[in-house]
Structures are given as C-alpha cells and as structure tokens.
Amino acid sequence: MSKTKPKNSANSGLRPTSRALPIALLRTREHIMEPIRPMLAEIGLTEQKWRVLRILTEIGPLEQTAIARHACLLLPSLTRILSRMEADGLIRRAQDPDDKRRSIVQISKQGSALIEAHQPFSNQVYRDLEKKYGREKLDLLLDMLEEIQEIKF
Amino acid sequence: MSKTKPKNSANSGLRPTSRALPIALLRTREHIMEPIRPMLAEIGLTEQKWRVLRILTEIGPLEQTAIARHACLLLPSLTRILSRMEADGLIRRAQDPDDKRRSIVQISKQGSALIEAHQPFSNQVYRDLEKKYGREKLDLLLDMLEEIQEIKF
DNA sequence: TATTGTTATACTCTATAACTATA
DNA sequence: TATAGTTATAGAGTATAACAATA
Predict the structure, then answer these.
(1) What CATH number labels B27-149?
(2) Fewer CB atoms < 10 Å away: N or C end of chain A?
(3) What is the per-residue pLDDT across A55-99, written as a single tens digit (0 to 9) for each?
C-alpha cells in the first residue's frame, strides 16, 4: 500500500528523479525504444533519420525549417542528415520556385518503401503496448502529452 | 468537436507522429526543456551531467553501472563524463574495498552546492508547470510514465 | 567464466557563429 | 534588414568491440 520512500541522504526538498518530468520522459522513451532500436539498426537508420521519414510521410513535401521543428532537430544537424539521406536516395530536395531561399524536401519512392516495409513491425509494437498498458490509457497519455506541448512557458 | 485530420498524401495506415509515443515523448521533453536549458548553459552543465548530479543527490554514493542505468547513459559515455566531472570537482570516485572492480561515485560539496543553488529555479519551473497544467494531472502523468517503465517488452 | 569499468574508434548529434543567397 | 539554409568548428554523446583487473 504505502510506497517505499527512497532512503537518501542529501535530498533536501528536491523531487525524486522519478517525479522530475524531463527525466521521467527520457526514461520512458528509452524504455519504449529498447525493442525498436534493433529494427532501426537493421535497416541502417538513425532515430533522427527515421523521424524525418515519418514526418515527410505524414505531412508531405516540407521545407527544412518545418522539418527541423517537427523532428526536434537543429537546422545545421538537419542539413547534414538530409545530405546523407539524399545521397542514399531516401529523400529529394528541390528549390522552391516561389521563394528561392527555401528548399522543399520530399520523400523518395525508396524512402516510402522503407517506411512501408517497417509498418507491420511498428504496428505490432504499438499493439503490444496497447495490450500491456491499455488502449484507453495509452490514448489518454498521448492526449496529455499533446496538451503539455501547447503550454506557453 | 471533431478533430481535424491531417490532409496528407502517403499516410496509409501509419499513426500520425503526434500519436507515436516515442516522438510524442521526445517533443514533450524538448518543450519542457526549453526554459531549463539556458539555466544549465549558464552553470556550464550538460543535461547528462545534470542528471548524474541529481541521481547522486537522490540515491547517494553509487557504482557506475547503476548510475548509467538511472541516467540513461552508456557506460563508456559515463566514464568520460565522470572523468570530466571529477576534474571539475563535482564528484569523487573511490574504489570499493569489498569488490575492487567497482568504483563508488559520490557527489562533492561543490556538486551539492550547484544542485542547491539551482533548486529555487527548478522548483519555480515545476510550480509554473503545475499551475498551467494542473497539479493532479501532472501527478497522474508521472504515475502513468512510471507504469510504462515497468512494462516488460 | 563472468563482471566492472576503461580505452579505442568511428560515427553522429549539439550548439553557436559566420556566411551566402534571397526576400 | 530579415529569413532560409549552409558551412565551419568545437565539443559531446552513441555504439561496439577489445581489454585489464577482479570476482
């Protein structure tokens, strides 16, 4: 019934790390990613590249500043990542004719094929999570996470 | 009432990224970290070093394998991080007399002082979050995150 | 034989600033 | 003047393997 308190020494008034949101989010993410990482390693994609492909699949052709925002990447990082992905044939870049500073990034057939080939695995991981955690609770959690992201600090 | 669906092209049966838990967790964490990062930069700590200090404060002297697990770091990364932190006087390492393979890491006075000096800021960020998001909801969210971390995949 | 931690290596990401081209 | 993206650079983290010391 009663939770065991950490028997610590110098913890004067600081929340335990399990109740510190940034750390809790990180640990949860690491835990969730554990079964997913071997799959990404197998198809030779970093998590970052994977996110870029997912976002391009979801939204469609997109300028780089927007991709960086959606994928939680800095623009200089994205530049390098996209160069490599373009060389690997996963995406294409084209100058925006209306604003020549912009370049529009689009997923390639090969990139789409990679996403599609992975989809059964991804869905299976998700179903497993639904089964072990509960569909409604998972849905609620995703709602709650979205709501936090809308807060202005 | 009805949620607006993303008007995308090739999104055949894949969850939107906002409903993919690893991405949602990452975005939420980035959003939360935004006001915290300038503070860390000011005191010259990376997020990783900050986590190590927090964990040592919470649990007390700890061997490196355990720190790595709690802080979501690989052991080789931790080795380098601790070397630097030891040189900077933030932690101390001592060989475990009972098992000479192990080394026990302990936070130093200077490290504790850094944590303490930061505490008002940390608490303020947390209160701000409670105020804008709701204390009960935040507590529920932390409970839910802890529960996910206990799932066996 | 297995475990703790270190070292080595190659790759990747982060963070910041300076820069180019365009608006 | 401001913005989109690139390049440069220094620092840091990731991932894997090999290793030494100890159990």
Answers:
(1) 1.10.10.10
(2) N
(3) 999 999 999 999 999 999 999 999 999 999 999 999 999 999 999
